[in-house]
Amino acid sequence: METTYETLISYVKEVQRLNQSSAAALLVLQDDRIVFEHYEGFHSNHDAKAIDVNSMFNVASARKSYLGLAIAYALFEGKIRHLDDLVSDYFERYDVDTFRGTTIRHLVTHSHGLNRNETGFIFREFDAGEGWAYQGVNVEIMTELFKQLYGYDFTQLLRERVFQPMGLTRTEWATQAASSLVKVVDDPGEEASYKLYPFDDGMGSNLHTTAREFAAWGNLHLNNGRHHGVQIVPTEVIRLATSIQSPEYANATFPTNGLFWYVQGEPKAWSELGEVVPAGSYQILGNTGPLLLVIPAYRAVVVRMYNKRYNYGGARYLDYLREFGNLAAETVRPTDDL
């Protein structure tokens, strides 16, 4: 078994070394069972606690997949009428001219064209639906919209409707330090912290989970909302979250998204999904290194974890992501597909 995953392990270890991450984990779940897992390193650059199955990594922006499921619930339950509803239909406080033509679809697929400056002012970089850019302002708006529609944070819905029924006990928005939390390394020469974002941002930040529970989250989606044979989440909610929802782009290099997930249709130059990853696969990533790749064609979920802020590679970071995805897909591809 170790031989099968040797190349993938070596790749994960090499990027860990290059990026100066103190921790790494790799887990493969296929046909509803864990077929391989590997843990490497320590909870921080100044913490000798070894990484193991109970180590909870800060998944950073990968938490968008959790918000995406909550937004899918809002669509399914009619709280949001349609993805093509204008944002201005739901908010009065945002400037109408700035948000003109911007829909919910644009916000959840990174095609909104909005950004926020250091003073908090929201401005437009390009017309909605005419471009693609990864910014945080859309997450802020969708988090606010969910709370406005339901009267409570999206994190509460997930805890009550998903985490508890699944028995997830090591997936939580941590608010105080604990020995199980893997710290986020910013500068390897300085003490690390389990925090990545301030807790007063109201965005459900600092989500921590283990490699196993991250994989279970992916497997819930792979199984269309079923967990151990029980329908936890409606199938349509999963479909909304993980199918391509992007507008039609004139630029063929732009990636395609579901509700924040990157979804593989035709391979795209700007996508973080490699060209050999099968169509219908989807992936989420955080800037501390966690990556969750779901490959329905191979009935597989692949988890990679790190704890170093900013993904390795600089301007070439997409190349490294695609290389990992391609290698993972080749590794888990059933032999009868060869």
Could you characterize what this model shows?
α1 packs antiparallel against α8. Helices cover 28% and strands 18% of the residues. The longest helix has 16 residues. The protein has 8 helices and 14 strands. The mean pLDDT is 94. With 338 residues, the protein is an alpha+beta fold. It has one domain: 3-Layer(aba) Sandwich (Beta-lactamase). It is globular and about 55 Å long.
Which helices and strands appear, and what pairs or packs with what?
Elements: H1 6-19, E1 23-30, E2 33-44, E3 47-50, E4 57-58, H2 64-76, H3 104-108, E5 114-116, E6 122-124, H4 137-150, H5 154-166, E7 171-173, E8 207-209, H6 211-222, E9 226-227, E10 230-231, H7 235-242, E11 262-263, E12 282-285, E13 291-295, E14 300-306, H8 317-332
Antiparallel strand pairs: 1-2, 1-14, 2-3, 4-8, 5-6, 7-8, 9-10, 11-12, 12-13, 13-14
**Beta fraction of the residues?**
15-25%
The largest sheet is: 7 strands, antiparallel
Order of helices and strands: HEEEEHHEEHHEEHEEHEEEEH
**Inertia-based shape:** globular
Instruction: Give the neighbour order of strands across the main sheet.
Output: 3-2-1-14-13-12-11
- Using the coordinates above, name the CATH class: Alpha Beta
The name of the CATH superfamily reads DD-peptidase/beta-lactamase superfamily
Q: Using DSSP, what is the number of strands? A: 14
Point out poorly predicted stretches: none
Gyration radius, rounded = 19 Å
Q: Please bin the fraction of helical residues.
A: 25-40%
Count of helical stretches: 8
CATH topology: Beta-lactamase
Number of domains: 1
Query: What's the CATH architecture?
Result: 3-Layer(aba) Sandwich
